[in-house]
Amino acid sequence: MKRVVIIEDQQAICDMLAELVKVTGGFEVIGTFVDGETGIEAVIEQKPDIVILDLVLPGMNGVEVLNRIADECPTVKTLVFSGQGSPRNVKEVLAAGADGYVVKTDGFEEFRTGLETVIAGGTYLGPKANTAMRQYLAGGTDQGQKALSSREIQVLQQVVDGKTSREIAAD
Question: Considering the entire predicted model, what is its pTM?
Answer without folding.
Answer: 0.81
